[in-house]
Amino acid sequence: MKSTFTCIVRGWLAVASFRILVGSAVAAPLLTGSAASPARRQLLDSMSSPQVAAPLPAAADSGRTRRARRTDYTVAPGVTWHYEKPGQFRWLTHIPRDIIQYPGYAFKRENIPTIAGLVAASGALWVADMPILHGAQNLGRWMGLDATSTQRTLVYVPFHVGGAKVPFEFNVPDNLNSTFYFLGDGWTHLTIASSFMAYGILKKDNRAAQTATQLGEAILSTGVVVQSLKRLTGRQSPFRSTKDRGEWHLAPSYSTYQSNVSNYDAFPTGHLATAMATVTVIAENYPEYRFIRPVGYSLMGLLGYSMLNNGVHWASDYPIGIAIGYGFAKIAVRNGRTRVAEPTAPDGSTGWQAPIHPRPWYKRGELSPFSYGPFTGGSLTWKL
User: What is the DSSP string of 294-338?
Assistant: First the structure.
């Protein structure tokens, strides 16, 4: 009896000691650096070694993994993008790089059919400019849509750069056609970009913050090229035209251009170029929201019509402007994120995940041997 009692006491002491050791191992933090023993440091190094294969993401993964300065988003099966936290105003330094990269991006061999299509479309629209313009304005009169572009100035701060007037002003549209025209205004796109930036900062969302900087980068790069082409081509706006389809005054002087801007700035369209850049950047970064492009292109259609109705642009001004905005948006997005490599399966293929086929509860029973003192048998357990 005494020996049996002694065995029971020793057994409980052994169990208690085991539980204390396990609890200490779980509760104690991992020691690193000089605080860990050599054997423990070796174990930790082997655990953190880059050679250790990372587990494949589970099917129910949220798609976002937060790290110090990065965020990874899975936007589709096997498609994950890496977004760095953008630096303050660093995107401004990317604009010269984007402009330099644009010819190499736009004039690739595979883009030759697209370029030919743009040239053909611009030529065909140039031939039909007058009928298209008159048809749009007649439709506006039939609908009672005021063609006058009227805006109310809410803020106006005079500012001069050399001899040029560059005032800081904020206007709001005063009629429906002006509202459509306002869709291409710089304030509209600035508000969109600022909204993404505010959300990115408040929610610590690198994708939203990168979208904001990409918008600024694409819009300003587009503006530099569009304004340069306007000053080179010098095409009259419809409401200032002195002949059908407008005069072309190639490379007017700076003072001449500034003294009568609307007489020289029709080609290409800056409003649609900027709108296209905005829609493309947002759609590329948020491909899971399929409504972005249809809604964006519909609003661009209203904008394009309003500029015909108020006589600001010819239809042939549109294709090249839209292409410029699209190209700079693609460049900004390409430089603003990185595709994360897909996980690799044991057979070397990519995009692999082990199939998950959960068994019904009645097939989840597990039989295991059981031994306690003089008792030996088996136990059946279920994992629900």
Answer: HHHHHHHHHHHHHHHHTTS--GGGHHHHHHHHHHHHHHHHHHH-E
In the DSSP assignment, the letter for residue 89 is: T
Q: End-to-end distance of the chain based on CA atoms, in angstroms?
A: 42
pLDDT above 50 (res 60) = no
pLDDT at 380 over 80: no
Measured CA to CA in angstroms, residue 341 lies from 56, 207, 331 at distances of 12, 18, 20
- The single-letter DSSP state of residue 242 is S
Place of tokens 């809604």: 295
Kindly list the distances between the CA atom of residue 60 and the CA atoms of 98, 295, 339, in Å, as whole numbers in the listed order: 38, 30, 21
Sign of CA dihedral 282, 287, 290, 294: positive
pLDDT at residue number 342: 66
318-336 and 270-285 helices, crossing angle to 10°: 30
Contact 278, 186 (CB under 8 A): no
Buried b (16+ CB within 10 A) or exposed e, 347-384: eeeeeeeeeeeeeeeeeeeeeeeeeeeeeeeeeeeeee
Mean pLDDT of the region 22-51: 38
- Burial track 176-212 (b if 16+ CB lie within 10 A, e otherwise): ebbebbbbbbeebbeebbeebbebbeeeebbbbbbbb
pLDDT digits (tens, 9 = 90+) for 99-148: 999 999 999 999 999 999 999 999 999 999 999 999 999 999 998 888 87
Structure tokens, 271: 């409003």
Query: Please, are residues 140 and 147 in contact by the beta-carbon 8 Å criterion?
Result: yes
Mean per-residue pLDDT, 276-281? 98
Angle value at C-alpha 359, between 346 and 64, nearest 5 degrees: 55
Phi, psi of 370 (to 5 degrees): -135, 130
| Cα–Cα distance for residue pair 122/130, rounded to 1 Å | 14
Residue 311 has, within 13 A of its CA and on its CB side, a CA count of 16
pLDDT digits (tens, 9 = 90+) for 339-357: 887 665 555 554 444 444 5
- 312's CB contacts (< 8 A; 6+ apart) are 149, 181, 237, 238, 239, 262, 266
**Which residue blocks in 176-317 are alpha helix, DSSP H?**
176-182, 186-203, 206-233, 254-259, 270-285, 292-309
Give the separation between CA 82 and CA 74, rounded to whole angstroms.
Answer: 9
Return d(Cα 221, Cα 17) in angstroms, integer. Answer: 69
